[in-house]
């Protein structure tokens, strides 16, 4: 089995690319795609597993300091592929049957520039160096950074009551967090995910964030009737709490629900303060793995 590989307690863009390559080479039935590029030109990768009629999507690392969501998704994809080869089970469900009945598109790292900034600081030659230092109040420590490299919060970028979110946030310009950008979908990372979603017309989506052990399933009454019962099922296998959220707009799952009137979920993995420590990865995955498996199962 290919193992998700932390390097010095971190899991950044290079580790994700290397693990995607290992997955595709080890399991030829997994396909890899480039769906766009970040501000700094890093390819935004997607991997596809499954060949069923139902098409769903999972993503991670919208927010830079929530990078642990990327290896969580990679571990799940790896375990599913390995179980398919061995005709085994994935959290109690026959893996090959899931593969035959569902097509899953993973985008493990929506925000590669931000993740690298959060983990490693400003890379040599970064053209945004001066702006980043100014936004970060002169500090070269970026572990609390959530935004992309231009200081835009990618999960406030989607055209779902975006103007109301901008007014609610009250951010006048770019920064480490909460700036929705100059207009919806101004950032190439958000554009890439929107294009993928519009092109593939997913039946359901799940955005993995940290932290809080909660499941957000609604958006302004646009969600279908069965969304709440699906959230209850996700909560039942994970112990996470389904929450009917209000006072939040312009997120990816908000836009998806409003645009398609289909189920969309934001899952807040783990507890504590971001960034969650990698030493908690296995404990977090013990609850996230069954949740992701149930998400695939209920879309069959």
UniProtKB/TrEMBL annotation:
Keywords: Hydrolase, Metalloprotease, Protease, Zinc. The keyword Protease applies. Its cofactor is Zn(2+). Pfam families: Peptidase_M14 (PF00246). The active site is at residue 268. InterPro entries: ENP1_M14_CPD, Peptidase_M14. It comes from the Bacteria. Residues 9-300 form the Peptidase M14 domain. Belongs to the peptidase M14 family. This is Peptidase M14 domain-containing protein. It comes from Paenibacillus glycanilyticus. The lineage of its organism: Bacteria, Bacillati, Bacillota, Bacilli, Bacillales.
């Amino acid at each position: 089995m290919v193992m998700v590989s932390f390097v010095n307690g971190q899991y950044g863009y290079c580790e994700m690319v290397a693990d995607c390559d290992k997955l595709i080479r080890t399991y030829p039935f997994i396909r890899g795609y480039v769906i766009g590029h970040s501000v700094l030109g890093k390819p935004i990768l997607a991997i596809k597993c499954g060949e069923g009629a139902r098409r769903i999507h999972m993503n991670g690392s919208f927010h830079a300091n929530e990078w642990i969501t990327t290896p969580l998704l990679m571990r799940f994809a790896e375990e599913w592929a390995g179980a398919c080869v061995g005709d085994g089970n994935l959290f109690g469900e026959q893996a090959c049957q899931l593969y035959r009945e569902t097509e899953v598109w993973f985008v493990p790292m929506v925000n590669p520039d931000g993740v690298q900034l959060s983990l490693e600081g400003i890379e040599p030659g970064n053209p945004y160096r001066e702006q980043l230092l100014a936004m970060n109040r002169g500090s070269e420590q970026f572990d609390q950074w959530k935004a992309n490299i231009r200081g835009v919060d990618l999960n406030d970028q989607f055209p779902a009551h975006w103007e109301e979110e901008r007014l609610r946030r009250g951010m006048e310009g770019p920064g480490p967090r909460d700036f929705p950008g100059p207009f919806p979908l101004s950032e190439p990372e958000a554009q890439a995910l929107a294009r993928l979603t519009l092109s593939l017309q997913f039946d359901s989506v799940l955005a993995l964030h940290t932290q809080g052990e909660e499941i957000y399933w609604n958006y302004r009454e646009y969600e279908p009737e069965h969304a709440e019962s699906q959230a209850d099922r996700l909560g039942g296998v994970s112990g996470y709490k389904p929450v009917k959220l209000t006072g939040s707009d312009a997120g990816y799952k908000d836009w998806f629900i409003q645009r398609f009137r289909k189920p969309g979920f934001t899952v807040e993995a783990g507890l504590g303060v971001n960034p969650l420590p990698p030493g908690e990865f296995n404990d977090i995955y013990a609850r996230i793995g069954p949740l992701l498996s149930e998400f695939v199962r209920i879309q069959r």
